[in-house]
Write a structure and sequence with these properties.
With 134 residues, this protein is mainly α. The chain has one domain. It contains 4 helices and no strands.
């Protein structure tokens, strides 16, 4: 159950970060056309990514770097495969591809850092409680 909660938490972080990044980009590009359908599509894509990442845990990849690279690769592939038909992603040039991949990498790094800090805080709290009961 803890694993499922972790993926739910990661999905929430990813959705929030993606929303903030997209809002900032819309303001920078002076666009205000990101609609409810786009947010719903983004939510569905993030949920599907979290489900696939959950099942990828069974791959038993030993290297953390390889595991994270594989996760990021899957996120990019899924986002492009599902994002283009839902019109969440529009690619007019190579710069659009680079922008999308950059957004995905930033979102992934922020999500992973948030999960790491949350786990570290939990561990520190547990260690503090254990020290107090000795």
């Amino acid at each position: 159950m803890k694993k499922i909660n972790q993926y739910f938490y990661a999905g929430c972080i990813a959705y929030t970060v993606a929303s903030i990044i997209l809002i900032i980009i819309c303001f920078i590009k002076n666009k205000e056309d990101f609609q409810v359908k786009s947010y719903a599509s983004m939510l569905i894509i993030i949920i599907l990514i979290q489900i696939i990442l959950y099942f990828m845990e069974n791959l038993q990849v030993k290297s953390q770097f390889v595991h994270m690279s594989l996760e990021l690769f899957m996120i990019i592939i899924i986002t492009f495969i599902l994002g283009m038909p839902t019109k969440l992603i529009r690619i007019d040039s190579i710069y659009d591809v680079i922008e999308i991949i950059t957004i995905l990498i930033v979102n992934y790094v922020i999500t992973i850092l948030s999960l790491y800090l949350n786990s570290r805080n939990d561990a520190d709290y547990i260690n503090k409680i254990l020290k107090e009961h000795r």
